[in-house]
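Re: duplicated header lines in exported structure tokens

Our pipeline writes sequence and tokens for each protein into one text file. With two proteins the header for the second block appears twice in some exports. Here is an export where it did not happen, for reference. First protein block:
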Amino acid sequence: MAVLAVGSDLRADDAAGLLAAEQLVAMRRTGRQRMKVFFGQTAPENFTGEIRKYQPSHLVVLDAADSGRPGGTVTIADASAAGVASIYCTHNLPLTVMLNYLAKSLDCQAFIIGIQPHIIEFGQPSTPAIQRAAKRVAKALHEAMS
């Protein structure tokens, strides 16, 4: 499995995916998971080559995602699901375009785990709700891989 963390640590809760990935890396040190974590930050498309070299059976993208729900709400979607593109598009290249390309070229399953941001103002720290949600997501992925 490969995990691609997306977001900006300079924009408060937009760092949700990065926070979850950092937690996952810390947890992974205590276990024996077959997983690689990529920190794509604001340009996840730059990691398609590295992900293709790794050839995962599953690809999970962690990102802040505006689903219109309360801050900290976690949403999981198959990358090919209808309507996902309108929910998860805050990057230069829509994540669904990149994920569908990778899923087809690698013959793997691709999912997006989105955490609803509360604020995304520049220069602000992430909110406690997002920090808690990131820990929950990391714990769930860690347990699923154990």
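Second protein block, exported in the same file:
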Amino acid sequence: MHVVVIGAGAFGGWTALELVRRGARVTLIEAWGPGHVRASSGGETRVIRAGYGSRAIYARMAARALERWREHDARYGRSFYKNTGALWMLGRNDPFGRATLDALRAAQVAIDDLPLPEARRRYPQINFSGIRSVLFEPEAGFLLARRACEHVANLVAEEGAEYLHASVPAPVRMTRGRLERLRLSDGRIVAGDAFVFACGPWLGTLFPDVIGRRVTPTRQDVFYFGTPAGDGRFSDDGLPVWVDLSTPAMYGIPGNANRGFKIADDTSGPVFDPTHGDRNVTAAGVRKMRAYLKRRFPALARAPLVGSEVCQYEASPDSHYIIDRHPEAANVWIVGGGSGHGFKMGPVIGEMVAKLVAGDAEPDPTFSLSRFARGRIRVSAEKWA
């Protein structure tokens, strides 16, 4: 079977790797390169955690993903996964905490209900004012995103796949219930038995009728602040990944990868053009982050801004992924809707999609396109709950 995979981000890259290892002939197509700056999988780091409130399916998937990331690092002598743990800071009467405890314990994922006095003792660099409860997920941490994308794409090529640096003009058109070939932007034609489109925020333009606004790119500003010289309290040796749900969701990754202390607002931002959008952060955004640092991490109140980036989520209305067959073409698969929590799941998504393409599994209803037609989609602006 010749499978053409479009997109070399977390979903497409791992899918291509799984397919090659199953014996498929694979062509991987990428417009700007794996982990490029416009991609939802781009950037230096991404959080890996299993806490999802009551969404138990993601707790199970994250546990499997963590296993796969560890195996990958051990096999290739890499360190893409950094185990810092994750600190969840919750406000008053937050149901997320209890739901997370129940779901993770059911999935046999380690999770601790950390008393506030103990949290203050462990992390005196954090001001826990306004926090009513704290959870600690010891196996969580962060992943080196861009570097991992590059490594996976290199493995795909080394293990026998063809890699093409090209783009696919929109929209994609089917003929008599199948897709036989793609004409690329440079005029080349690629034929295949099956096609997997893992194109993140560009899925809506490639498939305007089937996807359209069901995958919406939103602008997400990310900031890196410099930590005091020689001060390990804010590095990945002294602080875990953290998520603050006592306010509109904020999260951060301790100083790592020589980039500084990463902080971002997890609330979905305005609709964004992933191809042509301006990727400079705003002065208002910087002020907002400084105000937050002053309150929650007082020692960083005057920290210099040492870097920034504008990423995007590619969000579905209910924050669930889309992993399904195209309704008009049995040999076309659409994989996306990462909704800001997809990167860590790359190895698991790759396994799932490879089985689907090979005919060894059926799509999970949770990720089906048919859920949109049923009219029971609960629109969600957040992905943590």
